[in-house]
C-alpha cells in the first residue's frame, strides 16, 4: 500500500509538473534527475540535454557575474545552513546566448526514496525590465521636480487649504522642509503676507466654486524672515462624480520681476 501511495504521489507530481508554467528540476546524487517542459522554455536546453547535468555544469549556465551567488548557495546547502533563504534571484545565459533573470526556490525533498533538491525556477525577466523602467521613470521625475524652478503641490479643498504634498525643492527655495507644510495644515496660509491673504482666499474660492484655473500673486515669508513675491497657478481636481478632490498647482518665484515692475510705475 505504501509503495502504491508513493507511485500515485509521484504520478500526481509529474502531472502537475508537466502542466506547470514554472520550471522544475530535481537534483539528486549531484545530477539532474528530473526537468519539466517549462524548464526547456526558460533555458533553451532540451530535457535530454539537462538530464544528468552536474552542479558544475548548471553553474556554467548562470551569468558569469552571478555565479558566485549560486556557488555560495550550493556551499551553504551542502553544509546544511538553516539560515539560507529559500529564494534567490540571479541571471542565466540560455542555450542561444540570451540573458534572463530568474527566481529560484529550493527545497529538500524525498524523491524515489532518497533525499533530493527540488528547484522551482521562474522567468522574471519581463517583470525586472518593467521594474527597472519604473525606477528610471521615478528617478527622472524626481530629478525634474527637484531641479524645477517651480514648486509642485497638492492641497485640501476645504478649511485652511493645507498642503497634502509639496515637492522637495521647497527646502532650497524657501528654507522649509516639505514636512513643515504637510504636518501643519495652517503653515502655508500663516506665511502669506497679511496684506495679500484676502486676495489669495478669493482666488482659492474661485477655484473651488467655478472650477477655474487661477493664476495669482502673493508675498510669502521665507525661513530667513524675508518676503518674496510668488506666482501660483492652481486648478481643481474632481472625481468621476464631479466632486472636488484636491487642488493641484505650481509656484514660481517672481520677486525680481515684480520689483522691476513696481520701479517702472
Automatic annotation (TrEMBL):
Signal peptide: none annotated. Pfam families: PAS_3. InterPro entries: PAC (IPR001610), PAS (IPR000014), PAS-assoc_C (IPR000700), PAS-like_dom_sf (IPR035965), PAS_fold_3 (IPR013655), Sensor_kinase/Photoreceptor (IPR052162). The keyword Transmembrane does not apply. It catalyses: ATP + protein L-histidine = ADP + protein N-phospho-L-histidine. Its EC number is 2.7.13.3. The keyword Kinase applies. This is histidine kinase.
Amino acid at each position: 500500500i505504501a509503495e502504491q501511495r508513493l507511485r500515485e504521489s509521484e504520478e500526481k507530481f509529474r502531472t502537475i509538473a508537466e502542466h506547470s508554467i514554472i520550471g522544475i528540476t530535481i537534483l539528486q546524487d549531484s545530477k539532474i534527475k528530473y526537468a519539466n517542459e517549462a524548464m526547456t522554455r526558460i533555458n533553451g536546453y532540451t530535457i535530454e540535454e539537462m538530464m544528468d547535468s552536474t552542479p558544475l555544469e548548471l553553474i556554467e549556465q548562470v551569468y558569469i557575474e552571478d555565479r558566485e551567488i549560486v556557488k555560495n548557495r550550493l556551499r551553504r546547502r551542502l553544509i546544511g545552513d538553516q539560515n539560507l533563504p529559500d529564494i534567490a534571484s540571479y541571471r542565466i545565459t540560455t542555450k542561444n546566448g540570451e540573458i534572463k533573470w530568474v527566481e529560484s526556490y529550493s527545497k529538500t525533498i524525498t524523491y524515489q526514496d532518497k533525499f533530493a533538491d527540488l528547484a522551482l525556477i521562474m522567468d522574471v525577466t519581463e517583470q525586472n525590465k518593467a521594474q527597472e523602467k519604473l525606477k528610471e521613470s521615478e528617478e527622472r521625475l524626481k530629478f525634474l521636480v527637484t531641479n524645477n524652478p517651480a514648486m509642485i503641490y497638492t492641497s485640501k479643498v476645504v478649511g485652511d487649504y493645507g498642503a497634502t504634498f509639496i515637492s522637495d525643492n521647497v527646502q532650497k527655495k524657501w528654507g522649509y522642509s516639505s514636512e513643515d507644510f504637510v504636518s501643519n495644515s495652517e503653515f502655508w496660509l500663516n506665511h502669506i503676507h497679511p496684506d495679500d491673504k484676502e486676495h489669495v482666499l478669493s482666488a482659492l474660492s474661485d477655484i473651488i466654486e467655478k472650477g477655474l484655473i487661477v493664476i495669482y500673486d502673493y508675498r510669502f515669508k521665507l525661513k530667513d524672515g524675508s518676503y518674496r513675491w510668488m506666482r501660483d497657478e492652481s486648478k481643481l481636481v474632481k472625481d468621476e462624480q464631479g466632486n472636488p478632490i484636491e487642488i493641484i498647482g505650481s509656484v514660481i518665484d517672481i520677486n525680481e520681476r515684480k520689483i522691476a515692475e513696481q520701479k517702472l510705475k
